[in-house]
């Protein structure tokens, strides 16, 4: 099968090179049969990569340990779903995964894009295929997943125990899907620049794609937080690790883009900015891959060091120079059609929102690269950690949260004093009342107070928007409240879906602020001994160490420590935390021991128990206990966010969703009155 | 004042604010990342470095130097880059990757005491085979 896979990779490379050459030569212009061939070669590359992927999967499932990749990531006793997901567990396989998914996306883009953008499509084919070709080259010349060993090991090395988690089966592909799908909007942006079709056409063509990749990134990041929380055992979910930051960066600029395109659609402003943002987002996604794979910056999540990093660095440089040069040559054609009319307008609120998103992205990038930068400039390596990122980003994030409330309320073009009063009285009062209640309850952390009262303000704006929408429908159509609510959302999916996403964002902020009140305690306990721990919600937990049991299962030897919990004097069950030593099928240990955290999750707070080890092999155990308030809401926020985003992009919907798509090349439709709602 | 100017003022405030927060954040929270050799050079050239300045040291744990005291939850070990050695003492739980196996790389955050022992406030361990395992030949 490796021969077939190898052959498929070479076929993909040659077909891809042909597609790229024809596309960028421009020979297809005015020759429909040649354009059609360019598009068909996208499907051909995709077919070749699908064949390569199937060959790798066949190798994995058949335990063909002669294949280096199979021997390195699986073993005979590995559960079959992890054997399946080992496809993307390692460097080489994940490169193939990336390439095949990108070419599937590229094919989907060719198939699903309406015919009116037909003259963009050969350009799009060229750009997407160029990226695919890059990945195929990395595989063929640096990290070939089909490489064979000189001998056949009896069993494989097995999958890292920390990757043996359901979250790890879905988290990386989600994140990859996000990273990868950014290429499609980027390809359309480059196509628009190349073809000089610089109206809002390309923006309409990619609206769904940007939302899809934004959603995958958001879900991938949230799943990553969940994985870190349940698997890494340090008690939190976000450590500002370089790899975490790398996934956040394109998400930040993509979020900025989702907002700023609305201004271009409505007002014909920000054309250069939008193109810059989408190019930047693509480059950041490649940068993220570079960070994860090169080992330049030490991170707990990275693959080991390899020369693959140089390929990515080179690609990053070439893609950056080419895109920005192209943008520069089209600069004069991207003049804004109107100027900003008032600082008190939705345009201004969106501009500030964009600056904040980019500012946050810049500070995260700066902090991530700081060890390298300081060594280059000053000769000493200086690192910054979570305190730096929190110090910089908490104030900026809160400002952004405030704008989340302001944006939807303020009028387009120019807000009048009456508009401001009518829109803001309710939400601002909600925020003030939230603050007063929290102060009365004794909360004192400044940033948490700010976050929660701003969340109150934003919640106020969202409720007010829904309420007014329902009220207007009931007046106009004499509908009952639930019917009016349903139709309101169904007919304006983009707008109300957006509000649901805002709701999710404020739930995230509430969950983040909960961590300001976390409690932690370490204890060494003999069986029967117990400790008491008070929670910020005023509950008292009594934790009694019951003992340690040892047993062997499927692919590991387990020491399980059991804690009996009472909450406010009432029994609240047993929590088990484990130390696991994974072994291969000959019972030889593989990897270092890993910890399985015991978590009792609730709406108010999580009790998080880590069994850190036993004292000299006795039943005396060392524990770390954490009480993490409001963590559950983070996972819940993830569902709300996904729901809102899907609602926004659901086919059909209101007039905004279809938009002024009849705009012809070089002709801009500006909806002057559209904002006066 | 025109809307454009007001916006530029606001933008300047945001950009300036971000710049200020970054500069101040780096100044307040930046930590030296040194090898044991560099640490020795630093303390030789600047005696106030001892006890006063926090830093991180990236080095390997000297095999066999680990002493664990589970009751007090303290751990003592020696780090080295092959040239200079520093003893470390740490109170707290070390991560799973901190094993007694040979050749583990650690990052120790803390301060140097007058007695030449690093008082660690945090210990991170990175194992070369973390995700990418080399099959035994």
Question: Can I get a quick summary?
Answer:
Chain A is of the alpha+beta class and 677 residues long. Helix content of chain A is 60%, strand content 12%. The radius of gyration of chain A is 27 Å and the shape is globular.
Word description of this protein:
The complex is a heterodimer of chains A (677) and B (137). With 677 residues, chain A is α+β, with helices and mostly antiparallel strands. Chain A folds into 4 domains: 164 residues, no CATH class; 191 residues, no CATH class; 132 residues, no CATH class; 116 residues, Tick-borne Encephalitis virus Glycoprotein, domain 1 (Sandwich), CATH 2.60.98. Chain A contains 20 helices and 10 strands. In chain A, the strands form 2 sheets. Chain A has a 5-stranded antiparallel beta sheet. Chain A has a 4-stranded antiparallel beta sheet with strand order 2-10-9-8, with no helix packed on it. The longest helix of chain A has 33 residues. Chain B has 137 residues and is α+β, with helices and mostly antiparallel strands. Chain B folds into 2 domains: 30 residues; 96 residues, OB fold (Dihydrolipoamide Acetyltransferase, E2P), CATH 2.40.50.140. The longest helix of chain B is centred in the first third of the chain and has 27 residues. Chain B is elongated, with a radius of gyration of 21 Å. At the A-B interface, helix 3, helix 13, strand 1, helix 14 and strand 9 of A face helix 1 and strand 1 of B.
